[in-house]
Structures are given as C-alpha cells and as structure tokens.
Amino acid sequence: MITKQDMVDLFADMKQNAPWDSNKPLLWGYFFSDQDQAKLERAAPLLQAKGYQVVGIFDSKPESDTPALWWLHVEKVEKHTVESLDVRNQEFYKFADEQQIETYDGMDVAPAP
C-alpha cells in the first residue's frame, strides 16, 4: 500500500529532480491490475464518468498464450499536493475493493500536455 510518507518522498524528489513544476497541474496516470480482464473493462467506464481518460487495458505478457496480469491505465491532468494525492490513492484503493479488482497499483506523473 502506498503511504503518505511515500507521497512526501515523491514530492520531495519531484521538487529536486523533475524537469517540471510540481505546483502546477500535471498528467497523473493511475494503474489497476487484475488477472480478470473483464473486471477492468467494467471499471473503465466508471472511471471515465469521473473524468479520467482511459489509456488502455494491457496484457502484461502479450507474447504468452495466457496473460499473467491485465493492467488498466487511466490518466487525468490534475494539481496535487501530498495530501490530495494521498486522498486520491485511498479513493482508488476503495474503488478497487468495491469493484473486486485485485490491486490499485499506484501512479506515475509527467508534464501536462
């Protein structure tokens, strides 16, 4: 589970090393994973309804006959603080639990387009 301290560390690292201003809106990507692709397909429109863009649902081992794990990737341009990102993570852990998705796996960040 991603902790608030992890968010403190992330923002400190961005402030020191990222080539963007973490005080401005950024492109935040969020990831969910499950062995059942259908669960992620059902979750995607629910996240779209909350303003997230669905990037896709990906097989972690596309060269294999059976997928090891499926990934749902959504993204949204948002401005976050340590506190707001911690709240978002908790919301996504709850969402994953409610949708019976195995894992909310975390986020990545990039400059907003």
Q: Would you report the number of β strands?
A: 4
Order of helix and strand elements from N to C terminus? HEHEEHE
Contiguous low-pLDDT stretches (5 residues minimum) are none
Oligomer state of the chains in this structure: single chain
What spatial form do the alpha-carbon principal axes imply?
Answer: globular
Distance between the termini: 29 Å
Structural class label: alpha+beta
Binned strand content = 25-35%
Major beta sheet summary: 4 strands, antiparallel
pLDDT averaged residue by residue: 95
What does this structure look like?
With 113 residues, the chain is an alpha+beta fold. It has a domain at 33-108. 38% of the residues lie in helices and 30% in strands. It contains 3 helices and 4 strands; from the N terminus they run H-E-H-E-E-H-E. The chain has helices at residues 4-17, 37-48, 82-98; strands spanning 26-34, 53-59, 70-78, 103-111. It has a 4-stranded antiparallel sheet with strand order 2-3-1-4, covered by helices on one side. The longest helix has 17 residues, at 82-98. The chain is globular, with a radius of gyration of 15 Å. The two termini are 29 Å apart.
Give the gist of this structure.
This protein is α+β, with helices and mostly antiparallel strands and 113 residues long. It has helices at 4-17, 37-48, 82-98; strands at 26-34, 53-59, 70-78, 103-111.
